[in-house]
Structure formats: structure tokens, C-alpha cells
Amino acid sequence: xxxxxxxxxxRQFLIASFPVLLIGMLLIGFWVATQITNSVAHRIGxxxxxxxxxxxxxxxxxxxxxxxxxxxxxAALDQLFIDTPLGEKIASLKIWRRDGRVLYSNNKALIGRxxxxxxxxxxxxxxxxxxxxxxxxxxxxxxxxxxxxxLIETYVPLRxxxxxxxxxxxxxxxxxxxxxxxxxxxxxxxxxMLITTxxxxxxxxxxxxxxxxxxxxxxxxxxxxxxxxxxxLVTQNDQLHDKVRRAAARTAALNEVFLRRxxxxxxxxxxxxxxxxxxxxxxxxxxxxxxxxxxxxPLSGTEEFRVIRxxxxxxxxxxxxxxxxxQLPEIDKLSIREIAERAIRDYERKTGATVALNTVxxxxxxxLSVKITLYxxxxxxxxxxxxxxxxxxxxxxxxxxxGRLIVEVSDRGTGFNPAAIVPEGHLGLLxxxxxxxxxxGSFDLQSTVGQGTTIRVALxxxxxxxxxx
Length: 469
Known about the structure:
It contains twelve helices and ten strands. It is 56% helix and 15% strand. It has a five-stranded antiparallel beta sheet with strand order 2-1-5-4-3. Strands 6-7-8-10-9 form a five-stranded mixed beta sheet, covered by helices on one side. The relative contact order is 0.07. Among the domains are: 4-192, PAS domain (Beta-Lactamase, 2-Layer Sandwich), CATH 3.30.450.20; 330-460, Heat Shock Protein 90 (2-Layer Sandwich), CATH 3.30.565.10.
């Protein structure tokens, strides 16, 4: 079966349709042959029936008033079979009375006997001619069975002159020699016509199917080529997408490195210079403060020194705060749980709020870019919760399962309508979403006015092509 299905559609049609057409042709041929045989038999029987009627009817007219034939009439009927054309055509003859009695037969043993009225005799007594092929198995055919195996059996109604009333029926048997000749010739013509028709139809159908099969094969080839090209394009697109995602993840990690470097530069450069200048300024200030005061405006010299020192101290504090905010803690060696604890600890130290933490499988290995995203996500989401929800019942849950990191940050603050927020006014949310989606994760925000806010994030623990713990 598998070998058959691998062939072309035209070959499948050629193999499968041939036995179907052959069987159909044979069935139709045998049916036509049977119909031809019956038709020829009816025609021969009908023609002979009229011939017989013209010879026999004049010798049975006494049956219109009597119940039996006279000896003279039987003798006249006997003469019909002696050296006459009728005797040559007819193999056997019976004349039936309406009650099923044999009034005459060339087999004298049947005269006077009663037999059941069969279908053919019933039709003839009703006034119609009935003809069929007989296998001579009936009881009254004992004479014929001894000489022939098959004969054309014909029943002809015999009518009374003048009135046309059926007074008897003649049953005669005709040799099948003529039938065989005519039916054989007709069947031969029928078979030749049928074979020719089926062959032409078969070839035409095969030509159509072959043309369709060729078109299908060509289209399948073109489709396979397009599928191959599309598969190659999809593969290239996946590779490019993977490269872009890895590049974005590396960029995020590099961005943290640059921020750390800027923080260090601010601390070691301008920060050190400002610290040294402040120390020198304080030393000079302490000396000048004991000198005679010289006023250069609305403030005295001592007050001017104090204002300048306060400004420098404020600038130094801001510079240190900026430097500390830019610098990311050393988290590349920390686990997921340790990173979450570090982010929450820094948040609690700055705000005085309390955050509940729950971690599952917190020691699972993760890429550095995932760790950075986790820290920044907690840092930003907790800060937003403090700013907009006053840090009300903040809770963090982080769990690693099935190769993914699931993080959920929630609070019980005032909440808001996410559909009504203006994107430009929530850069923190956009930044968190962008960080997560760069790594191929999902970001979901749910908030209800009066019921709090929940941020749910799913990240791959390991980003292909990036370093991991």
C-alpha cells in the first residue's frame, strides 16, 4: 500500500481504475448479452408464433363449441409435421385447453393429460404471445429433454374465427441454432462496441488525470521550493532575532558596566576634587573667621564662608548620591534569593518601609543579564510602590521553575486604572517592560483602584549565548 501511495496520481488511477472498469465492462457485457439473447428469442418466437398460428388455427375451430379435437382435426395437425417447412422449424408442439389439458401433441403420450398452468400458458390464454429460453425441466417436457438440452419455448393464443375469442393455446419449441447464430453475431458487435467505448473512455480519463497529476506534481515542486525558502527565511529570522535579543541583553549588561564606571569616575574625579577643595576651604575659613571682619555686601565675611561651605557640602552630598544611584552592586556572584534580599535591604534602608520576601528554588543558576534585570525590576517596582502607594503591605515573591524565573511584586495601596495611564508619565513601567521583553520574558501589570497593584514578570533563567552563574 505504501508503494502504491508513493506513485504519481496518474499511475494510481491507471492501476486502481483498470480492474474497476474491467469488472464494470464484463458485468455490462454479460447483461447486454443476456438481453440480446432474450430479445432474439422473443423475436424468433414471435415470428414463428404468427407462422404457427396461421397453420394451426384453422384446425382447432371446433374448440369454440366442443371440449376436444376430433380425429380428423388431429390427423390434419399430424400432416403439418410431415415434410413441411413447419415441421422443419418446430421441434415439438402442444395444444392446451383452457383448463390445462393437452389436446394435441406430437408426443402422443401427453394427449389428454392435465398439467399445472405455468406462467407462459397463463399469458397465452390471456391473449398474448410469450417466448423464453427453456431448460426443459418441467414435467411436460419429458419428450423434449431426451433430444435437446435447451429450446426456445413459445406460447401462442389460438382464437375463434369471427369472434377473436381465445379458445386454446399452442405451445411449441424452436431449435436454438438460429438463435445462437443471431445472438452470437449481435453479442460480438456489442462486445466490440463496449470494449472500444471503455478503452476510449479509459484513455481519455487517464489523459485528463495524467494532465492533472502533472500539474499537481509541478505545483508540489514549486510549493516545496517555497516551503524550503520560507523555512530558510524563518530560520534566518530566528537566528537574527536570537542575535538581537542576545545583543540587547549584552547591551543591558554593558550599560550597567558603563554606569558603574561613570559612578566611579564621578567619585574618584570631581568627587575627590570637591572633597579636597572643601577641606582646604574649611581650613581657610577657620583662619579667616578670626580675622577682622570685612564686609563686602549684605553678608559679613564669616557668613559668606558659611554659605559657600554649605553649598559645597550640599553639592558633595548630591554627587555622592548620584554616584551611589548609578552604581549597581556586585551581583554577578549572588544567587536569585541574595539579589532579591539585597534589593529589598537597600530599599528598606532608604525608605524605612518593610517588604515581605518569599523565594522558591532561589539558588537556581541564572544569566547575569537576568540577575541585573531582577535587581532593577525590584528597585523600580518597590520605589514606585513607595511613591504611589506609600509602601503599603509590599510583598515580593520570586521562584524558579521549569527554566523560568517568576517574579511577583504587589502592594495594598490605592491602585489605579492601567488603561487610563499616560505612557509618557510612566517611564518606569515602560523601562521595566522593555528590560523584561528584551530577554524574551513577559510583563503583566494588574491594578484596581482601592485594592492595590501587582506586577508579574516571567523571565528565562538562562539566555542562550550569555554568561550564567
